[in-house]
C-alpha cells in the first residue's frame, strides 16, 4: 500500500464528471489497484475513488500542466467501464509504501454460530424442562440449528437461530417443522424463532404459523451486561 500526502487536483470522467480543486489530500493506492482520495474530514469516506479492477499509469505533465506547477500525473483507469481518475500532483509532502501482507479478515462477535452455541449451553432461555438433543440436527433439506426435548414427554422443540430474523427465516423453520413432524419419535415438534432482532413482518408470520418468537440478548448470554435500560 502506498500513502501519499500531496497538493493535488482530481478529475473524474465516466458516467459523470467531477472535479476536486487544488488542495492537500491523502492518496491511498492499494495493492488491488484501487485509489482513494481523502481529505482531513468526512470520516472513512473518500472524496473520490476508483475501485478494482483498475490500473494506475504515471504520465508526463503536458505544457499546460507544467505552467500550472504540476510535477506528476496519475491516471487510474477502470478495466471494464473505462472510467478514469486523473490526479494532477503539484507537491508531494509525504510518500511511503508498506507491505501489509495477507489480511485474515474481520472476525465478528455475535454471529449466528456464537448465538447457537450459547443457546445450546443455556436452553433454559427457551423454557423450562428442556434438554438439548443436538445442534445442527440433520434433515433432508438441511440441518435444524437446535433440537430440544421436552422432559415432560410433550414432544420436541426445533429452533432456528438468526442474528436478524426476517421472513425467510420463518419460511425456513416452517419447512423444517413439516418434515420433523412426520417422525413419530419426534412429534409433536413445535418451533421457536430465536434472534437478536426480529422484524415485525417476520413476527406476524411466525405467530400466524404457531411459531414462538424469542429475542436473544447476546451480551447477557455471554455474561456481559448490555447496559440497555430494563423495566425489571
TrEMBL record:
The keyword Cytoplasm is assigned to this record: yes
Record EC number: 3.1.-.-
Localization per record: Cytoplasm
Residues covered by the Endonuclease NucS N-terminal PH-like domain: 2-104
Gene Ontology MF annotations: DNA binding; single-stranded DNA endodeoxyribonuclease activity
Domain Endonuclease NucS C-terminal: 111-231
InterPro entries, alphabetized: Endonuclease_NucS (IPR002793), NucS_C (IPR048301), NucS_N (IPR048302), NucS_N_sf (IPR049173), tRNA_endonuc-like_dom_sf (IPR011856)
GO terms under cellular component: cytoplasm
Keywords per UniProt: Cytoplasm, DNA-binding, Endonuclease, Hydrolase, Nuclease
Family: Belongs to the NucS endonuclease family.
Summary of the function given for this chain in its UniProt record: Cleaves both 3' and 5' ssDNA extremities of branched DNA structures.
Name recorded for this polypeptide: Endonuclease NucS
Organism for this UniProt entry: Microbacterium proteolyticum
Lineage, opening ranks: Bacteria, Bacillati, Actinomycetota, Actinomycetes, Micrococcales
Amino acid at each position: 500500500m502506498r500513502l501519499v500526502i500531496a497538493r493535488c487536483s482530481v478529475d473524474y470522467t465516466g458516467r459523470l464528471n467531477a472535479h476536486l480543486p487544488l488542495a492537500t489530500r491523502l492518496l491511498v493506492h492499494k495493492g488491488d489497484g484501487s485509489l482513494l482520495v481523502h481529505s482531513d474530514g468526512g470520516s472513512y469516506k473518500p472524496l473520490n475513488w476508483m475501485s478494482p479492477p483498475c490500473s494506475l499509469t504515471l504520465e508526463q505533465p503536458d505544457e499546460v500542466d507544467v505552467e500550472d506547477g504540476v510535477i506528476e500525473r496519475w491516471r487510474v483507469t477502470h478495466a471494464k467501464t473505462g472510467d478514469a481518475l486523473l490526479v494532477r500532483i503539484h507537491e508531494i509532502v509525504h510518500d511511503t509504501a508498506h507491505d501489509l501482507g495477507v489480511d485474515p479478515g474481520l472476525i465478528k462477535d455475535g454471529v449466528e454460530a456464537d448465538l447457537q452455541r450459547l443457546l445450546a449451553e443455556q436452553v433454559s432461555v427457551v423454557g423450562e424442562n428442556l434438554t438439548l438433543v443436538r445442534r445442527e440436527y440433520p434433515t433432508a433439506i438441511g440441518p435444524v440449528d437446535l433440537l430440544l426435548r421436552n422432559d415432560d414427554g410433550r414432544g420436541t422443540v426445533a429452533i432456528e437461530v438468526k442474528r436478524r430474523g426476517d421472513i425467510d427465516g420463518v419460511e425456513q423453520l416452517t419447512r423444517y417443522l413439516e418434515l420433523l413432524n412426520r417422525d413419530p419419535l419426534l412429534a409433536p415438534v413445535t418451533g421457536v424463532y430465536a434472534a437478536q432482532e426480529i422484524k415485525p413482518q417476520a413476527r406476524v408470520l411466525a405467530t400466524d404459523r404457531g411459531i414462538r418468537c424469542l429475542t436473544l440478548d447476546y451480551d447477557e448470554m455471554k455474561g456481559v451486561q448490555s447496559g440497555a435500560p430494563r423495566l425489571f
